[in-house]
Write a structure and sequence with these properties.
The protein has a single domain, classed as Beta Barrel (L,D-transpeptidase catalytic domain-like), CATH 2.40.440.10. It is built from four helices and eight strands, in the order ααβββββαββαβ. An eight-stranded mixed sheet has the order 3-2-1-8-4-5-6-7. Helix content is 21%, strand content 25%.
């Protein structure tokens, strides 16, 4: 039995939910985003530890092709940088574009874009912003959820973004 399974069973038996403190003992080894579900999952050894609703760009379907297309990339990347001073509360950068993305963009004669982040809300955002796809291709969560993700995810964690 995995460590995550053991802790989840203990939490269930003791009738309490996994808090940030309890989750701190389980390393998140993968972040999964399923765009069609508008959900971000934190996983350990294949098991979902936490889930968060997300907002994407206004054109959420399809893989990001170029700068300004308002799409979120699809594929396997790495979370490679944390920015506590982001204008979107806090942010964690996705390593897009990778070599494959750059080669595809070069073939199309376009700029692949970049600076794709998981981030919180901009200052002054209205409550309910998570109900709409409003980013330029980033993955937005509430500030409260961003605080949890920030604590639980380390730089170097793989992220998979699926349609």
């Amino acid at each position: 039995m995995s460590r995550a399974s053991f802790l989840l069973i203990c939490a269930f038996l003791l009738n309490f939910s996994l808090t940030q403190a309890a989750l701190a003992f389980i390393p998140v080894d993968t972040v999964l985003v399923i765009k069609s579900e508008r959900m971000l999952y934190l996983k350990y050894e294949g098991e979902i530890l936490r889930r968060y609703p997300v907002s994407l760009g206004p054109v959420p379907w399809g893989h990001k092709q170029q700068e300004g297309d308002e799409r979120t990339p699809e594929g396997r990347y790495v979370l490679d940088y944390k920015n506590a001073g982001s204008r979107f509360y806090k942010s964690i950068r996705v390593s897009y574009p990778n070599l494959r993305d750059r080669l595809r963009a070069e073939e199309l004669g376009v700029d692949p874009g970049g600076n794709i982040m998981i981030h919180g809300q901009p200052e002054g955002a209205e409550e309910g912003a998570q109900l709409f796809n409003w980013t330029d291709g980033c993955i937005a969560v509430s500030n409260e959820h961003m605080d949890e993700i920030w604590q639980l995810v380390t730089v170097g964690t793989p992220i998979e973004i699926l349609p």
